[in-house]
Amino acid sequence: MAALAASPDRAVRVGGYWAKRAARAQTNAWHRLQKCAFETLRIKLFAPTWAEDPSAALAGEAARLERLGRGGFHVPDVARVTPESLLLADAGREVHETMRHADAETRLALVRRCAGLLAKLHRDGLWHGRASLRDFVLQGDTLGFIDCEEDASRLGDWARPRDLLLFLQSIARFSGDGALVKEALAAYGDLAVKAQLAKTLRWISPAIRALSPFRQSLGRDLKQMLIVCEALA
Q1: How far apart are CA 76 and CA 16, in angstroms?
Q2: How confident is the prediction for the chain on average, in pLDDT?
Q3: Residue 168 in 3-state DSSP?
Q4: How far, in Å, are 1, 13, 64, 78, 212 from residue 60 at the CA level?
Q5: The domain that contains 12 carries what CATH number?
Q6: Structural domain count of the chain
Q7: Sheet of strand 136-139: strand arrangement
Q8: Whether the predicted pLDDT of 37 surpasses 70
Q9: Which of 12, 92, 139, 198 has the fewest CB atoms below 10 angstroms from its CB?
């Protein structure tokens, strides 16, 4: 794809489509924290899920998007997949971007809707793999998912608790007092997934909460984890 080849960006808009290049696993702050937690605690919730093979990652993402689409969820149509790139129909604006410029009432409504959609996905026995607010989109009034890049199938029964954890962490970025996180939990409902996550985090929450007096000097990921642990307590 010429537009993608000419751009340094990983994804480029081409008309009503997005062209996305293959890329090796991102080792961002969350991934480093996740890997450290898994190697230290051996809790499957934190097991790495990013792909090492770029071509396989693109094919896997296309397959996961198509699976969600067959389940009745709004996702980008996969127009073409090659070992080097993926061409996806535009599916709407990221909820994360809308949240950045929204008032408190709009943020609350979006969080509740996203939590309800994630709960439906999980009730249907499916998972996203990451499920942060960056991976939800709005097209008109239709809410859906994008960027199913991470393969959580290796997590088995922990794939859905992992979705919920990452979803809550992404909300915590907009909720320093944890109020929006608690609203998300209420909208998500009383599912076994929530109980499974809460039970697991109880093993690490004492260590996380011990950092509370130093909240202002913590990195973003630790701050968000602290807010989530407090909301689930």
Answers
A1: 11
A2: 87
A3: helix
A4: 20, 21, 6, 12, 39
A5: 1.10.510.10
A6: 1
A7: 93-94, 136-139, 142-145
A8: no
A9: 139
Tell me how far CA of residue 164 lies from CA of 33, 58, 194, in angstroms. Answer: 17, 23, 7
Enter the pTM of the model: 0.88
Instruction: State the residue for tokens 């607010």.
Output: 133
The residue with greater pLDDT, 29 or 197, is: 197
- Which has the closest alpha carbon to 85: 13, 4, 194? 4
Q: Identify the DSSP state of 130.
A: S
**What backbone phi and psi angles, to 5 degrees, belong to 24?**
-70, 160
Q: What is the DSSP string of 83-95?
A: SSEEEEE---EEH
Q: CB-based contacts of 74: which residues, under 8 Å, 6+ apart?
A: 91, 92, 137, 139, 142, 143, 144, 145
